[in-house]
Write a structure and sequence with these properties.
By secondary structure, the chain is an alpha/beta fold. The protein has a single domain, classed as fumarase. It has six helices and eight strands. The chain has helices spanning about 10-15, 40-45, 80-85, 85-90, 105-115, 125-130, and strands at about 5, 25-35, 60-65, 95-100, 115-120, 130-140, 150-165, 165. Strands 2-3-4-5-7 form a five-stranded mixed beta barrel. Strand 7 and strand 8 form a beta hairpin. The longest helix has 9 residues, at about 40-45. The two termini are about 20 Å apart. It comes from Proteiniborus ethanoligenes. This is Fumarate hydratase subunit beta. Belongs to the class-I fumarase family. GO terms for molecular function: hydro-lyase activity.
Length: about 170
């Protein structure tokens, strides 16, 4: 199996080389958010408030999960509270959305428009936790494990599920 390695910040050129079915490993900064916090991040984008939290989404990755002592694992990305934020997050520079579940045709088109991709991660909490070098809350600490987190990861695995208007679903 040929594994493609990505390091943040992710460039358009790196995205252009990926195809549906590719296996990837991610190193660098990954932001973590899900239902409760992603709409708040979108509000920060709309109000130019990301810098208050030192959040840089250009070339970024958002993992649809929560951070807890039980470990890391993807949540369903096709929940309206998550998938509904793809347009704004992708427009703000997010290149890779990590999670699980099939996305709507509209979201596939949004990803194509912004040269962003969706990568699925099998539910492998212990393995992902082992690949996490550092974690800290980036914003909205009051949300607990569902706060917006900043992780430093090494060789985080994933499979490209949506790219360039194509999908594996």
């Amino acid at each position: 199996m040929n594994v493609k390695r990505l390091t943040t910040p992710i460039t358009n050129e790196a995205i252009n080389e990926l195809r549906v079915g590719d296996t990837i490993e991610i190193s660098g900064t990954v932001y973590v958010g899900r239902d409760a916090v992603l709409p708040q991040i979108v509000n920060l984008i709309k109000t130019n408030g990301l810098s208050e939290y030192n959040i840089e989404l250009e070339g970024g990755i958002i993992f649809h999960s929560a951070v807890s002592i039980a470990g890391l694992g993807p949540t369903s990305s096709n929940k309206v509270e998550i998938e509904g934020n793809f347009p704004e997050l992708s427009a703000a520079g997010v290149k890779v959305h990590l999670g699980k579940g099939a996305l709507s045709p509209q979201t596939v088109e949004v990803l194509k428009e912004h040269n962003s991709i969706f990568v699925v991660i099998p539910p492998i909490s212990a393995y992902l936790t082992n690949k996490t070098l550092k974690r800290e809350v980036a914003a909205f600490e009051n949300e607990g494990m569902e706060a917006f987190w900043k992780l430093e990861v090494d060789r985080f695995p994933g499979i490209v599920a949506v790219a360039h208007g194509e999908t594996i679903f």
